Amino acid sequence: MKKLSSLCALFLISITGSLLAQNNTSYWQQHVDYTMDVAMDVETYQYSGTQTLVYTNNSPDAISKVYYHLYFNAFQPGSEMDIRLQNIKDPDGRMITKEKSSRIAPLSASEIGFLHVSSLKQDGQKLTFSEAGTVLEVALAKPIPAGGKTTLEMVFKGQVPVQIRRSGRNSKDGIALSMCQWYPKLAEYDFEGWHADPYIAREFQGVWGDFDVKLTLDKKYIVGGSGYLQNPNEIGYGYETPGTKVKKHRGKTLTWHFKAPMVHDFMWAADPDYIHDTLQVENGPMLHFLYQDNDAEIKANWEKVQPKAAEMMQYFSKHIGKYPYNQYSIIQGGDGGMEYAMSTLIAGGKKFGSLAGTTAHEMAHSWFQHILASNEAKHAWMDEGFTSYISTLCMNEVMEQKKENPLERSYKSYYYLVKSGLEQPQTTHSDRYDSNMPYSIAAYSKGSIFLAQLGYIIGEEKLQETIKKYYSDFKFKHPVPNDIKRTAEKVSGLELDWYLNDWTQTTNTIDYGIKEVKSEGETTKIILERIGLMPMPQEILVTYKDGTKEAFYAPLRMMRGEKENVKATVLADWPWAFPTYNFTIAKPMDEIESIVLAPSQLMADVEPTNNTWKQ
User: Fold this and answer.
1) Of 83, 144, 268, 526, which has the most beta carbons under 10 Å away?
2) CATH code for residues 1-25+375-507
3) What is the pLDDT of residues 159-187, one digit of tens each?
4) DSSP 8-state assignment for residue 477
5) CATH assignment, 512-614
């Protein structure tokens, strides 16, 4: 019996440990240390490099295979990205010609992108590997045990594609090199397993680690990007210590040495015509701005945006949590706006408002993507949506827009999606949306409404507390949807599983209405109805003919409580299954001017026409 009991105990321990690993994403994180030495030929746009990667397996599993992303292989005729581009209903306008055909399909051998590995060793032993489009599949010579480390040494070669999407050479702005997704990048392995997603269209995920990168290229080129420059006094170009005299280098090239600690990606850009400005944020990082001096209007806007960028950095640090790095680079390049570790690429700058808005959005990604780092392929709304929410509020304050409801545009986009009949659940993998429009609105607009509407449910003060606690608890931990929900529950004391489920896992909609208003002598009976499937608590504002107002609040029973500091009469709970709900006002009907549901407009009711009753 003792032996049997011991076996049972071991079984229970094993099951408990397994459940912990499945349900607590902060239970463990993999770690990588990259050391790369890369030489770029600016004439052919080809580069060669070596990579030494120390992989620490903090998982409870032995790992017998690994995967690398080879993103540049997407920019080849016949790639998954190319074929998807040719078959999707509404292809990205940046990736198609005027004739609506793929820009990837006709690329010549000298225009395509590629990334190939010629040699790979594990602790000195040669490995077997094969390319499968944008993914390198590698069989390890020996498994990496739980808690163990291994060193992977690689030789690789790449070619920078013509600028089509995010990365590339000779962008529309004339930027020579926008180098993102440019190196063999180890895929993420977490409590769900491997995430070796092909590069088809969407965003990225990476393993936390430290990068040590040396870039050798034509000495006329100025470089900016992720990390801290280790040899600024050898480089110059505005990086040198003030008062230092930079020696002129013999030869045609310079080697730029960067280190980026605790990040999950590394980006750089280079151009011989970059201007490099810096601005120290008070109690914050040094901002670096790199942009071209080939258009007076664009140059003026890039200069004008700099103090605003400092204000944005302070806003996000105040409202989310302190930015943990000592630098952030804002660089002209790419094909729009795209966030990277400690940096961003932003195209253009012809319109100041657009440049400022893109800067705010991409900078906000530093928190929700490059510090929290949810899996964008599976949960794009946690990154794009939360970023849209906070950057919209930031713009409203920093740019003094003074909008009563800054997120009104997000709500309108969401209503458009619902009425289109094309909505898919937010749990849809980013590459598996039927077309681009439903993905964009689900990720950006519906994702931002998740937070705004959460404030409606738990209260604005509790929402702000939730955001800060979420950041504090889950930075550098790749949170999943349950983590933001549980954080809000702990802060508010309410049960919110219903909210996460209906809003993100279904296409159920919110639709409440005022069904009937009945006179009952000296009192008035108000009958509300739930038309849509998604439950929500209700806030009701009654305006009387004498100009006074009275607010009422009907909590949702499944919340198991109500939000605090409600400046309203708290009514009985509304059980979701009941399609109607009524309450009585202690005033005659002829004294009422109007009744409005959810006057804050933060509840995403898809049919607002039945939310108002007027005498």
Assistant:
1) 268
2) 1.10.390.10
3) 999 999 999 999 999 999 999 999 999 99
4) S
5) 2.60.40
The encoded tokens of residue 267 equal: 């980006």
DSSP for 279-308 reads: EEPTTSPEEEEEEESS-HHHHHHHHHHHHH
C-alpha atoms less than 13 angstroms from C-alpha of 135 in its C-beta half-sphere: 17
Contact 424, 434 (CB under 8 A): yes
Fold match between domain 1-25+375-507 and domain 30-207:
no
Asked if 411 contacts 449 with a C-beta cutoff of 8 angstroms, the reply is yes
DSSP string, 54-76: EEE--SSS-EEEEEEE-GGGGSS
As a whole number of Å, the end-to-end CA separation of the chain is: 78
Q: Are 210 and 259 in contact (CB under 8 A)?
A: yes
CB 114 within 8 A of CB 71: no
pLDDT 10s digits, 448-488: 999 999 999 999 999 999 999 999 999 999 999 999 999 99
Q: In whole angstroms, how far apart are CA 198 and each of 108, 162, 344, 606? A: 22, 20, 23, 36
Interatomic CA distance for residues 330 and 304, integer angstroms? 13
* CATH 1.20.140, applies to 30-207: no
Give domain limits for the chain: 1-25+375-507, 30-207, 231-371, 512-614
pTM score, two decimals? 0.94
Between CA 80 and CA 387 the distance in angstroms is: 28
Is the separation of the CB atoms in 445 and 414 below 8 Å? Answer: yes
Label residue 561 exposed, middle or buried (CB < 10 Å: 0-12, 13-18, 19+): middle
Single-letter amino acid code for the residue at 544: Y
CATH topology (fold) of 231-371: Zincin-like (3.30.2010)
How far apart, in whole angstroms, are the C-alpha atoms of residue 560 and residue 538?
15
Greatest C-alpha distance within the chain: 96
Q: How far apart are CA 541 and CA 532, in angstroms?
A: 21
**What integer pLDDT is reported at residue 223 of this predicted model?**
98
Q: How far apart are CA 174 and CA 54, in angstroms?
A: 37
